[in-house]
Amino acid sequence: VATNLPDTSYAVLGLIDKVPGSSGYELVTVAGRSLAQFWPISQTLLYRELARLTERGWVTATRVDQDTAPVKWTYRLTAGGRRALADWLATSAPPASSFRSGFLLRFFFAHRMRPRRVQTLLADYRRALQAQRDDLLAIIDKLSTSTAPAARFGRLAALHGLRTATARLAWVDEAEDELNRERPR
Amino acid sequence: VATNLPDTSYAVLGLIDKVPGSSGYELVTVAGRSLAQFWPISQTLLYRELARLTERGWVTATRVDQDTAPVKWTYRLTAGGRRALADWLATSAPPASSFRSGFLLRFFFAHRMRPRRVQTLLADYRRALQAQRDDLLAIIDKLSTSTAPAARFGRLAALHGLRTATARLAWVDEAEDELNRERPR
DNA sequence: GCTATCATGTAACTAGTTACATGATTAC
DNA sequence: GTAATCATGTAACTAGTTACATGATAGC
Questions:
Q1: What phi and psi values does residue A75 have, to the nearest 5 degrees?
Q2: For A137-179, what is each residue's pLDDT tens digit?
Q3: pTM for the complete prediction?
Q4: Cβ neighbours of residue A179 closer than 8 Å, sequence gap 6 or more
Q5: Chain B residues closer than 8 Å to A83 by CB
């Protein structure tokens, strides 16, 4: 009964391939500061995927006893896992780019808000974008020192986020201008 | 047992408020060319939300018999529905902007791909972005003629998508340049 | 004594997806 | 004949979220 798995499974598989021999706990943190920008995975889900990948025989789990910290399990791809990852990467990415913005959803109904409320909504959005931009700048900065071939794509992925955030910040200015122009004071 | 509803419910509520007296079928199409850009709602889900909103007493459903087409049901907000919508709009949008990009996920693991594959991946992404940009341009064009206050925010929301798509197209160029520079021929 | 880090889970839920069903009318 | 438009659903699933549990060690 080999149904095909969701992209999240391959995300975890790819992560293990990138940092082999890490524990679930480590993978959660690594995912949190890399994948999270464009493919967030919660801790619970990641552990569930690890179990599933192990069951499939795509990764092996090794028990590691530590004296200072609790027991941990480390993961590595099997030959089957490498094949599965390669197959998935060769598959065309479907248009499955789901984007849901709580901000835009509310903004779309802004004609039912008082002008002041629209202002704070935009201000909140700007703050969130700035925080995101700063995060991405830090990531890019850290990755730009490394010359590893794998880090190159990570850096470009982060750059994608940075360009997006910057454009959206410019949009916030634009929107504020337009809203002020029509209704002065 | 009044649990609070997900944003999607309010999205539908807001839509009905925007186009009162429309049927589920009409709402599906309206959602498809407005909300879909930043808050996609499938047909099945929309009908389910209509049932839920009716149950809550936030909207009323009216049966309309037609001689040429099948029976339809049209929807309108009640006083309670208007209050619920206003309350939700007054609520700060949580950072809940979930973004999942199948493209970036694969691109992040591009070090495991052959260079040719990376090229086609980028080319496919560019094509998708161009299509999206054209869609948004058409929407903005249509909305810019209208002077209704509600259309203004719709236009700005579409502009947000346009700015995003444009920045990402520029990123594709940037990424291709960078990948070609390091590995000529 | 408190908080943070390391480390792995269970339980319960629900939002959202996909596939399918039905059937009339109009236009090519 | 066949495809598109109008119109509303049901059924079945699963991916992902949220809240909670546990427990050791290390540093302040």
A1: -125, 145
A2: 999 998 888 888 888 999 999 999 999 999 999 999 999 999 9
A3: 0.92
A4: A115, A118
A5: none
Helix (H, G, I), strand (E, B) or coil at B75: strand
Residues in chain A: 185
Element (H, E) at B101: strand B97-101
Q: Are B176 and B122 in contact (CB under 8 A)?
A: yes
DSSP state of A142: H
pLDDT interval class at B163 (50, 70, 90) = very high
Identify the pLDDT of residue B8: 96
Structure-token pair, residue A36: 């999270």
**Is there a contact between B48 and B27 (Cβ–Cβ < 8 Å)?**
no
Does the distance separating the beta carbons of A89 and B106 come in below 8 Å?
Answer: yes
Question: What is the rounded (10 degree) CA torsion for B115, B178, B37, B46?
Answer: 40
| Cβ separation B163–A149 shorter than 8 A | no
CB-CB neighbors (< 8 A) of B37 in chain A:
104
**Residue in the block written with tokens 């346009």:** B162
Pairwise CA distance, residues A103 & B168, whole Å: 20
pLDDT at B91: 83
**Contact (CB, 8 A) for A71 and A79:** no
Residue B57: Cβ within 10 Å count: 12
Q: Cα B112 vs. chain centroid, distance in angstroms?
A: 33
Q: Which amino acid, one-letter code, is at A142? A: K
CA B66 to C1' D18, whole Å: 46
pLDDT at B149 over 90: no
Q: Determine what percent of chain A is predicted with pLDDT higher than 90.
A: 78
Q: How far is A56 from chain B (nearest CA, A)?
A: 21
Q: Which letter, b or e, does each residue of B28-47 get, where b requires 16 or more Cβ atoms within 10 Å of its Cβ?
A: bebbeebbebbbebeeeebb
